[in-house]
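This part of the workshop introduces the protein records we will be handling. A record pairs a protein's sequence with a compact description of its fold. Comparing a sequence with its tokens is the quickest way to learn the format. The record below serves as our worked example for the rest of this section:
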Amino acid sequence: MLSITNLRTLIFVADCGGIRPAAERLGRTPSAVSMGLKQLEDAVGSALFEQDRKSHLTKVGEFTVETARDVLKHYDNSCASIRAFARHEVSRCTVASVTSFAGTVLPEAIFRVKSRWTNFEAMVREVHSTRMADTVADGLVDVGFGRITVTRPDVEATPLMHDRYALVCREDHRFVDLGRPIRWEDLADDDFIGNESYDSHTCEGLNRMHDNARFHVSSASSAFALVTARVGVTVLPQLASQIAPRGIRFVPLEDKTASRVVAVYIRRGKKLSPATRMLIETTQALLVEWAADLEITRVRNS
């Protein structure tokens, strides 16, 4: 059986680069740390380090460390929820969200819940839509907000809102004064900045631009930085215009398939804490209230 304590010890040794520095951080003796690693290797059935100095992980060790990080996040989150429940203060909520939603809707929703519930606590992680269902299914968060992509039978994805994608460029770019929506062929002379969030998107034009892009980023903030630096142009959801830096413009695209539906993700069958339920309900109400200002369409069957 794999021990939580020994998994945590493994992570410390891997991060610290050896047994002695890990022992100092853990407040344990080096021999106790070595014994924990030995017990873990016996339970796994394979060596986790390439040599006795414990400074280089084996392939099995790398996989174990990566998996252990997720396991411990889930474990620590569950322990915090249990303690809160025991104190009759079920006020903790862990959230995964795409950047555009985390930077616009979530802050106000969290503020409103906090105003009504003095003991409310929230931890927000930015996660790509393509990993949202797995993050929720693995119990790493209580709820997720992201574009509907690949579905899983153990995760419910309830649509919340629909918004269009737009061409993102500097305010001095020729597209700003073009006088019509942008067509994909208009981008032939511009370097395109792809984004990991496009993965598995159904828009053929967007996928084609992404596949042929010279530059790639993993977040809206990085995309804004490259556009500002005149590296190229990109495409982002209209909602992201609310967090765009000064000097950036969003220009409509002609392709109506360049859009997304953002959903709330929860693990099927999981009993949600009152705090999580309140955050979801507050977010839904906020989208109704802000729909016009955010230039989105509220999905009413949510």
Q: What stands out?
A: DSSP finds ten helices and ten strands in the chain.
